[in-house]
Amino acid sequence: MEQKINLRRATLEDIDKILELEKSLDGTKIYSALTDKTELTNEINKTFFYLIEKDGEIAGDIAYEIKNENHAYIDGIVVAPKFQRQGIARQTMEIILEKLKNIKTIDLVTHPENEIAIKLYESLGFKKIGDQIENYFEDNEPRILMVLEK
User: Fold this and answer.
1) Which residue ranges make up each domain of the chain?
2) Contact partners, residue 141, CB within 8 Å, separation at least 6
3) Distance between CA atoms of residues 75 and 84, nearest Å
């Protein structure tokens, strides 16, 4: 049976734990990690930033922004290496999509080589839009825009 996860709204007290998680994934070209404390503080303050918890441990994080009453942007989702391939990203996305059920358009960007994420997003109804966007996060890596229209 699939173990349940818990999403907990991140606070500024969580910054060191989040930085540790993000730094564990820094250097992979398919994920642009949030490793700067000031940037992370701004992200927590301006978005709905959640910690993904499983078995009392931080398994990952996810953030989204409400752009307007009809548009939300998923800033990012990350799952720690030891928790990957356990369905955590799918469970997390399903919870977030339920929170955003009244929003007509939800978009996100992902790396074109992140095939696992692309398959997940497509299985949830997201579609690739347009050509890849070069240097989207100023990390010299391309991203693709994916949109869920309801």
Assistant:
1) 6-149
2) 29, 30, 32, 111, 135
3) 19
Q: Specify the 3-state DSSP secondary structure of 58.
A: strand
Q: Note the pLDDT tens digit of each residue in 89-137.
A: 999 999 999 999 999 999 999 999 999 999 999 999 999 998 899 988 8
- To the nearest 5 percent, what fractions of the chain are helix, strand and coil? 30, 35, 35
How many CA atoms are closer than 13 Å to the CA of 100, on its beta-carbon side? 27
Pairing of strands 71-79, 105-110: parallel
Most confident of 1-5, 29-33, 138-142: 138-142
Fold for 6-149, please state it: Aminopeptidase (3.40.630)
